[in-house]
Every structure is written in structure tokens, then in C-alpha cells.
Design brief:
This protein has four helices and 44 strands. It has 745 residues and is mainly β. It has a single domain, classed as Maltoporin, Chain A, CATH 2.40.170. The chain has a 22-stranded antiparallel beta barrel. A five-stranded mixed beta sheet has the order 3-9-10-7-8. The longest helix is centred in the first third of the chain and has 22 residues. It is globular. The N and C termini lie far apart (62 Å).
């Protein structure tokens, strides 16, 4: 039996077992049921049980109870997902789901996981490490979601759903937290109905923390946090058939530059620079760079209009605008010398418009519409090698439009079929300038004395070096088919096929003297088959969701960069297309209430991700490559014990939570690099919370990474003399303990 047939046999056996368990269960008197979970995975509200898609929903309350501080925390308890800070950044997100993603935030290369703020797609990863405040829930949709969620969701989508204003009464929350490394967080949020038809809401958060380590050269903190975020919303609902919602948000991140830990001794100075603290650095770039501080400023707004012209019909418009600017200092060698230093400015802006027509009938449901995006991604990047500077400017315009639709028809009370598709046209217009200067930093960053030593290269009378202009258009039709069988109210079995697409572009740091680089890199595709089972068992005390998936991943976009020794030395991008990869796996999420006071949750994911074609210089080296940021196993277990407990005259509930999370060995890049590849590890968290019966008071004590595990999340690998043996590691957060108090009124 081949591997795919074996997976299918296992899926059939597993779903059969769930069905039997659901029918045989009996309820124990006095035992509470698991909560019903509502999601919008198919752009309409459905219970988690009813939606035939692999989706995880985590409420904002659950994240607060676990002591989570930002979006990356869901990595520990969600199968087959990686969300982390990109290397050398504080607010830029690296995202992988089921082996699909990206870890290089340069202009012209986008992630394969769609990040959504409410219903708005964030086109760039800068500023996407969203803090947990004013949050209703986070939804994680695994597998290609292009039919309804659009471009660049071939791995899946992560949807950050904010809290809406209460239409009935005024309310406010104040939360203050203090913890390790002088962490001090303050969050104020609230909403109020101004009239019967108009209501407003607002939230403000300040997130401060000292560094986990120190910069021994500058005296600054390393891995500190200094973030201020705010959100305002207003809703006008003059009738039950019409709603207008306006939301505006802003974030400012003034955290210190994040520098990595050096893993090899210096070859240029003879000094070791191998420090005792994994979060310490000797990076000196801030003392010589044109700007000394890292920063991010991001602003966005969205306008949603819902109109119901007739019963069962909804017309929706979503207009959105976003822009951000990031200044980063990247000390690639993490030493005081200017051996290998980089500074970069990112500027992004986008406008999007989506129109939807929704119908919800007794047997037929339909979501269809059109989407348009106009975006610009710009970056200017200096890399200094002692007395020479490699300068890159990337300016990429993206215009994309799509028509989409998906209909679900109930053939009977038990069977339903969903058919959907999306046609997308993706147009890129790129201007890339690559120059080399004698001198420290380029004229763009203020060094007017730098000497340009870049040769000019023309092809057919057109300049391609130092200035390259490229344009390409990619289009694709991406269908989805789902067949669901619901033999009873507590069991849903489904099978699905979906195709995902991410457009091609131009390597923003490529050597355009090479004709292969001038033609750009190709779009990539994922075809995914999934078998799933969702069940509520034991008369509502248990919930189990299982999915088996098989994916064919073709023309995989592989970003990278290398140092060309020259002369002159330069920094060059290497975005290429690997031929194909296969990714098969399983995901399980379950929860059980043993008694009224005691409950447990378990999740795990397994993936067999491997390249089947990876051609280098005419040779298929697939057996020597691995899919990056994709551990074979991920899993977590949680135990929760809750008992009534009065504090003085205030009745309430005391809850103790314990969580253990596991990730197997993870390879950072396609080729093994033992110094920065992360072996398997466990993380242990615990929390103690008390909530008053009237829900006005909440007290909490939260411990994260209690074992103080050192685990690498990302790294740089340039182990050559020209870069002073630069191999750096960036680590996940160490052990922290935080106390918090919240008052609602």
C-alpha cells in the first residue's frame, strides 16, 4: 500500500471511531458542557462543529487567561503552525502553516499565510505581530483559503477579530500587569451607545519591558519592548437591515534594535565575542549608523457597510487603507566593528476594496463578490563591509483583482456540497536599483562622499544594472470542493479539495545581469486534499476535531541571500523556485470536561514534508534539502482546575491552568545548519486566576516558559571571512512571571 492510500485508510478508521464514540456516550448528571464556538471561516457565522474546514478558534479571554502577550503565543497550542518575530525585528511576523510560509520581509516577496485584521488582509508582514488587547478571538484556518480569503493564503490564514462596541450598555475595562524584566502593561478599553443607533468603542495599550539581555557595546537593552497601540471604532445601525462600521488603529514600536547571539569567534579581530548571556550582544551598528534607533509606525482604517435588501440577502462592502514605515538596524556580525552591518527602511501602503453578496437560505448558502488591491512596498537597504557598501532599493507596485464565489447546497438534512472558485490576476511592477560604493554607507543614507563603483550593464539597449525595471502578470483560477456528511447533530465528516496560488515577482536584491533573475520568479501553487471529522461527544462534555491532509506544492518560492566576495564584495538575493514538494499530515484538537471543576485539552500535529524536486545546476538535490520552519511534530496538553472561592465578601472562581507544549527538531533553512537548527524542546506554562462572580474583577499570576528553555526561532548564516564568520541565533522569550489585575465597570 502506498503512503497516500495508507493515510486514507487511517482517516477512514479514525472517523469511524469518532462516530461510534459519539453514539455510545452517556451524560453524567451535573457535569458542564464544553462551550459552543462560533467562527467565520467561510465569511459567515457558523459553529465550529458545522464548518467543514480545519480551523482553530482561540478567544481573547483564553489568551489573557494563559498570559499571552501577542499573536505569536498561539504557536504553542495550535497544530502545524509557526508564528514568530522575524530575525532582527520586533514587530515583523514570520508565519508558516502546514509547511507553507516565508521568512524574508523584503519588498517584492510576500508571505504564504494571510494575516487578517478583522476582514482586512495585511499585505506586508511589518507590524503584524499584533498584541493581545481589545481582542474578541483569533481564528487559524489551515490549508489553502484562496477561494474566500484571497491572495497569498496558500498555507492558510490567521484572522485577528477585534471586539465590537456593546450596543446596549456602556462598559469599560482597565488592565494593569507587572512582571519579569520590569514588564509593565496598561490597557484601557471601553464602548458606549450614544443613541439607539450609534455606538463607539476605543482601546489603548502600552506594552513596556526591559531587555532580556544587554548590548555590551552601546549600553542599550537587547530584546526590550516599547509599544503603544490604539484603536477606535464606531457603528451606526439606523435599522436592522443596515450597518456602518468604521475602525481606525495605530501602533508605534520604539523598542531597541534586536540583535542576535554570535555563535562563532571573530576571524578579523581575534576576539571571541562568545558571550555568557544568550540575549546579550556586542553589536555596534547603533554607534555608526545614520540613524541610531529602530522604529515602526503603522496606521490603518477600514469601513464596513452591511445592507440587507431582502430577507436572507446581505450586501457587504469592505474598504480599507493601511500604511507603515519601519527603520531597522541589522548588525549581521554582532560585533563593534563595521564588518557586516545593515540598515533598512521599509515603507508600505495599501488600499483594498471588497464587495460581497451573501445569501443564506434553508438549503442554499452563497458568498460571492469581487476584490481589488492596490499596494506599494518599498525598501532601501545598505550593507556595509568595512569600507565598501552594497546598496539596494526595491520599489514594487502590486495591483490585483479577483472574482470569487462559493455556494453550499444541502442535498438532505445529512449531506451538503460546497463548490467555490476564485479567479485572480496579479500584476507586479518593480524598480530595483543595486549599487556598490567605496565608503561607509551610500548617498541615499547621507554619505555624499561615497564613490560609486557600479558597472552599467545594458541588454538590447536597456539598462538592467544598476537600475532594473520589470513587469509581470500572473493569473490563476483556484477552486474548492467540499462534501460534508452530518449523520447526527454532534458529528460532521467532510472531504475537501482546494487549490492555492501566490503570484510571482522579482527578486528585490537579485543580480539582474543574469537573464534568469530578470525574468522574475514564478508563482507557486498548492493542491490540497483533506479528510476531516468534527464531533461533540459525551452529551456535550467533549469535543474532537481531526483532519488528515495531503498537499502537492509546486514551484516553491525559496528566498535567500548570499555574500558575493567580488571584488567588490556585495549582498545579493537568491529567490528561486524549487520544483515540487509533498506535505502530508494529521491534526487533532480535543477538549474534555471530566467534572464541573476539572477539564483538559489536547492537540497535536504531524507532517511529513519533503522536497521531491529541487534542481541546482542541473542536478536534483531534493534528498539533500528540507522544508524550512516545519517540525514533524507539534503538540500541547492543558489541564484546568476551577473551584468556587470567595475573597472577603466577593464570590468568585479560582482557576489553575497548566500547559505543556512540544515541538520536534526544526530546520531554519533548506540545508541543515547545526549551529542554528533547533532540536526538539518542551515549553511549560502555568497560570492562577481569580474572577469575581459578577465578572468585574480579575486577578492573575502567569508563568511562561517556566523551564527557562533556550530555543532558537531564527538566525543568520554567513560563515565566511568577508563577514567575520557571521552566524547568529535569535531566541524565544526566557522564563517570565507576570501578575495582572483587571477591573470592569
Amino acid at each position: 500500500m502506498n503512503k497516500r492510500a495508507l493515510w486514507l485508510a487511517m482517516a477512514a478508521a479514525g472517523t469511524g471511531g469518532l462516530a461510534t464514540g459519539g453514539l455510545a456516550a452517556a451524560q453524567q448528571p451535573g457535569v458542564a458542557q464544553v462551550d459552543e464556538i462560533v467562527v467565520t471561516a467561510r465569511r459567515r457565522e457558523e459553529t465550529l462543529l458545522d464548518v467543514p474546514v480545519a480551523v482553530t478558534s482561540i478567544s481573547g479571554e483564553a489568551l489573557i487567561d494563559a498570559g499571552a502577550q501577542d499573536l505569536t503565543a498561539i504557536t504553542q497550542t495550535t497544530p502545524n503552525i509557526t508564528l514568530e518575530n522575524s530575525r532582527a525585528t520586533n514587530s515583523t511576523l514570520t508565519a508558516f502553516i502546514r509547511g507553507v510560509g516565508q521568512q524574508d520581509p523584503v519588498a517584492g516577496f510576500e508571505q504564504g499565510v494571510g494575516i487578517y485584521l478583522d476582514d482586512v488582509y495585511l499585505n506586508r508582514p511589518q507590524g503584524a505581530v499584533l498584541d493581545v488587547y481589545d481582542l474578541e478571538r483569533v481564528e487559524v484556518l489551515r490549508g489553502p483559503q484562496g477561494t474566500l480569503y484571497g491572495r497569498n493564503t496558500i498555507g492558510g490564514a490567521v484572522k485577528y477579530v477585534t471586539r465590537r462596541p456593546d450596543p446596549h450598555e456602556a462598559m469599560a475595562r482597565v488592565r494593569v500587569a507587572y512582571g519579569s524584566y520590569n514588564q509593565f502593561d496598561a490597557i484601557v478599553s471601553g464602548s458606549a451607545p450614544l443613541t439607539e443607533t450609534l455606538r463607539i468603542g476605543a482601546a489603548f495599550g502600552s506594552f513596556q519591558r526591559d531587555g532580556f539581555g544587554d548590548n555590551l557595546t552601546t549600553g542599550e537593552e537587547n530584546y526590550d519592548k516599547d509599544v503603544i497601540a490604539a484603536r477606535f471604532s464606531a457603528e451606526w445601525e439606523p435599522s436592522a437591515d443596515f450597518l456602518v462600521r468604521l475602525a481606525v488603529d495605530r501602533v508605534e514600536d520604539d523598542s531597541s534594535p534586536r540583535h542576535g547571539y554570535r555563535l562563532l569567534p571573530s576571524v578579523s579581530t581575534g576576539q571571541q565575542y562568545l558571550l555568557d548571556g544568550d540575549f546579550d550582544t556586542t553589536a555596534g551598528i547603533a554607534t555608526t549608523a545614520p540613524f541610531s534607533d529602530a522604529s515602526l509606525v503603522g496606521t490603518g482604517g477600514q469601513l464596513l457597510i452591511d445592507w440587507s435588501p431582502a430577507e436572507n440577502w446581505l450586501v457587504r462592502s469592505i474598504s480599507a487603507w493601511r500604511e507603515d514605515e519601519t527603520h531597522s538596524l541589522i548588525d549581521f556580525d554582532s560585533t563593534p566593528a563595521q564588518t557586516f552591518d545593515g540598515i533598512v527602511v521599509y515603507e508600505n501602503e495599501q488600499f483594498s476594496q471588497e464587495l460581497q453578496l451573501n445569501y443564506e437560505g434553508e438549503r442554499l448558502s452563497f458568498v460571492g463578490g469581487a476584490y481589488y488591491l492596490d499596494a506599494n512596498a518599498f525598501n532601501a537597504f545598505d550593507v556595509v563591509f568595512r569600507v565598501a557598501t552594497s546598496f539596494t532599493l526595491g520599489d514594487v507596485d502590486t495591483k490585483t483583482w479577483a472574482l470569487f464565489g462559493e455556494a453550499t447546497y444541502k442535498l438532505s438534512d445529512e449531506f451538503s456540497v460546497s463548490l467555490g472558485g476564485r479567479y485572480t490576476e496579479d500584476e507586479r511592477s518593480s524598480h530595483v536599483r543595486r549599487q556598490t560604493y567605496l565608503g561607509v554607507y551610500s548617498p541615499y543614507f547621507g554619505n555624499s562622499a561615497a564613490v560609486n563603483i557600479t558597472p552599467t550593464v545594458t541588454v538590447d539597449g536597456e539598462e538592467v544594472v544598476p537600475n532594473f525595471h520589470g513587469r509581470r502578470t500572473d493569473d490563476a483560477f483556484t477552486p474548492r470542493v467540499i462534501v460534508a456528511w452530518k449523520p447526527g447533530p454532534d458529528l460532521n465528516l467532510y472531504a475537501s479539495y482546494a487549490k492555492g496560488f501566490k503570484g510571482g515577482s522579482f527578486d528585490p536584491r537579485g543580480n539582474f545581469a543574469n537573464p534568469d533573475i530578470r525574468s522574475g520568479f514564478l508563482p507557486e501553487f498548492v493542491e490540497s486534499w483533506e479528510l476531516g471529522a468534527k464531533a461533540v461527544l459525551l452529551d456535550g462534555r467533549a469535543r474532537m476535531n481531526t483532519a488528515f491532509f495531503f498537499a502537492d506544492y509546486t514551484d516553491v518560492q525559496i528566498p535567500g541571500s548570499v555574500v558575493v566576495l567580488g571584488p567588490p564584495v556585495s549582498f545579493v538575493g537568491t529567490v528561486t523556485n524549487a520544483g515540487a514538494a509533498g506535505i502530508d499530515g494529521i491534526e487533532f484538537e480535543g477538549s474534555l470536561r471530566f467534572t464541573e471543576h476539572f477539564s483538559a485539552a489536547l492537540s497535536f500535529g504531524y507532517m511529513d514534508a519533503r522536497y521531491t524536486e529541487f534542481v541546482v545546476a542541473g542536478t536534483n538535490v531534493a534528498s539533500q534539502r528540507d522544508v524550512q520552519n516545519t517540525p514533524d511534530w507539534t503538540g500541547s496538553g492543558n489541564l484546568t482546575w476551577a473551584v468556587p472561592l470567595a475573597l472577603g465578601s466577593a464570590e468568585g472562581t479560582l482557576t489553575l491552568g497548566l500547559t505543556a507544549a512540544y515541538r520536534s527538531a526544526t530546520q531554519q533553512f533548506e540545508q541543515a545548519i547545526p549551529l542554528i537548527d533547533q532540536p526538539a524542546y518542551w515549553l511549560y506554562d502555568a497560570s492562577i486566576t481569580w474572577k469575581s462572580a459578577d465578572e468585574r474583577w480579575r486577578l492573575g499570576l502567569y508563568g511562561r516558559n517556566l523551564g527557562d528553555e533556550r530555543y532558537i526561532t531564527s538566525g543568520y548564516n554567513f560563515p565566511v571571512a568577508a563577514t567575520d564568520n557571521s552566524v547568529l541565533a535569535f531566541y524565544g522569550n526566557p522564563r517570565t512571571v507576570t501578575a495582572a489585575v483587571e477591573f470592569r465597570f
